[in-house]
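Example for tutorial group B:
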């Protein structure tokens, strides 16, 4: 009789690989991409440069940066076939389902999708980084029965997303906000979606298959979908004065408060701190009454949750809690929050695929079997 092995449910605390891409220090609430602090990157860099850094492991020179940005701009537009499918799906399906399907379709336009040479892999990753914001924006447009807006080559990737979604060129502050969200969501070590991307990549399936897996995994409310769920909760609270009663009752009913808690961070998520500080800045820029109310509710909920569960249980706000109110500053519908996460996280997923294929090993964990053995088979008439 086998003795039962130690099982780490949810792979909690298990190292599955080495990586030089990002480090999450959960005890101290710190995050680095390739050794650069998230605070420095959020303040001084932009999404294109961060994507380059994640993929190539170093900051680009001016020429490298320009070549990279040119490639991205050349690839942002979508094939007509993909636009048609987005148009058909967007009015009836959740935008994450549209993202997953449209991304999967891109394999049709790659002449050599299974080529795993380093250059070919990086090239596919760049194509996906360029196209996913356009898929997200097109989904938003077609959901509202509006027409597709092609990318504007004078704009950066994240501000292009806003432009293609709204038809308006963002002002400086709006460009900063959307780029901040793209930078902060770009990478986060072996979270559920990145791990699922690597599981698929480890079978030597192609970059499109791995990315589609990642999108499916990111959809869930315990992972990427938490941003939409957190805003739904803030909206359900409705009035700032209801905040404490709502949260207390939810906690008493053993409900999870979306946007709080994290498998690795047992301190305040540094990305949430950054989003919170930009939200406070947005309050100085005459936001709508809706945004003011959302923020009042969010700040009261944050205080109560920290008082109750912060030090006591290591449950602090994560980025998804403040992401929703910030996207509302930009007028973005809550159903598009997780698709933006996808568009940004492509840089991290792609970097991990590139790194993993340097030393590929099929992922195949074990399960401890608890069922019977050698059960006699009865024909159907005798059951
Ligand atoms: C992210 C998450 C799944 C990580 O959880 P985990 O590491 O697996 O921890 P567990 O689910 O085992 O929870 C540990 C304890 O904290 C509680 N807890 C965790 N997150 C909580 C939350 N958001 N609200 C209330 N209680 C929470 C659990 O109920 C559990 O309590 P118990 O020990 O009394 O049973 C969890 O914090 C969560 O569900 N958060 C909400 C969803 C979210 O914001 N996800 C985005 C993450 S970036």
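The residue assignment follows.
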């Amino acid at each position: 009789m086998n003795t039962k092995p130690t099982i780490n449910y949810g792979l909690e605390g298990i190292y599955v690989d080495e990586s030089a891409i990002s480090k999450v220090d959960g005890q101290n609430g710190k995050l680095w991409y390739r050794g650069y602090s998230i605070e420095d990157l959020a303040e001084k860099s932009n999404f294109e440069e961060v994507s380059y850094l994640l993929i190539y492991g170093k900051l680009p020179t001016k020429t490298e940066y320009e070549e990279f940005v040119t490639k991205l701009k050349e690839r942002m537009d979508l094939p007509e076939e993909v636009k048609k499918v987005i148009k058909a799906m967007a009015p009836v399906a959740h935008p994450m389902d549209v993202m997953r399907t449209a991304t999967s379709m891109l394999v049709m336009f790659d002449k050599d999708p299974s080529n795993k040479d380093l250059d070919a892999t990086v090239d596919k990753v760049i194509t996906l980084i360029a196209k996913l914001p356009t898929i997200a924006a097109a989904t938003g447009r077609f959901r509202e029965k509006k027409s597709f807006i092609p990318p504007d080559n004078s704009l950066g990737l994240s501000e292009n997303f806003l432009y293609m979604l709204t038809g308006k060129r963002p002002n400086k502050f709006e460009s900063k906000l959307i780029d901040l969200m793209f930078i902060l969501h770009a990478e986060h070590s072996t979270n559920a979606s990145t791990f699922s991307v690597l599981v698929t990549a480890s079978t030597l399936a192609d970059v499109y298959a791995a990315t589609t897996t990642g999108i499916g995994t990111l959809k869930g409310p315990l992972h990427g979908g938490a941003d939409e769920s957190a805003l739904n909760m803030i909206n359900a609270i409705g009035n700032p004065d209801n905040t404490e009663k709502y949260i207390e009752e939810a906690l008493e009913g053993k409900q999870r408060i979306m946007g709080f808690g994290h498998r690795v961070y047992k301190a305040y998520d540094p990305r949430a701190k950054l989003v919170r500080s930009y939200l406070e800045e947005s309050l100085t820029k005459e936001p709508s009454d809706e945004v003011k109310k959302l923020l009042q509710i969010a700040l009261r909920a944050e205080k109560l949750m920290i008082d109750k569960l912060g030090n006591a249980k290591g449950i602090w706000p994560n980025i998804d809690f403040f992401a929703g109110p910030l996207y509302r500053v930009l007028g973005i519908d809550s159903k598009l929050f997780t698709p933006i996460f996808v568009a940004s996280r492509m840089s991290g997923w792609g970097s991990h695929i590139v790194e993993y294929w340097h030393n590929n090993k099929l992922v195949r964990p074990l399960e401890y079997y608890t069922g019977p053995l050698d059960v006699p088979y009865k024909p159907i008439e005798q059951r």
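The chain is about 55% helix and 5% strand. Compare this with the pattern of hydrophobic and polar residues in the output above.
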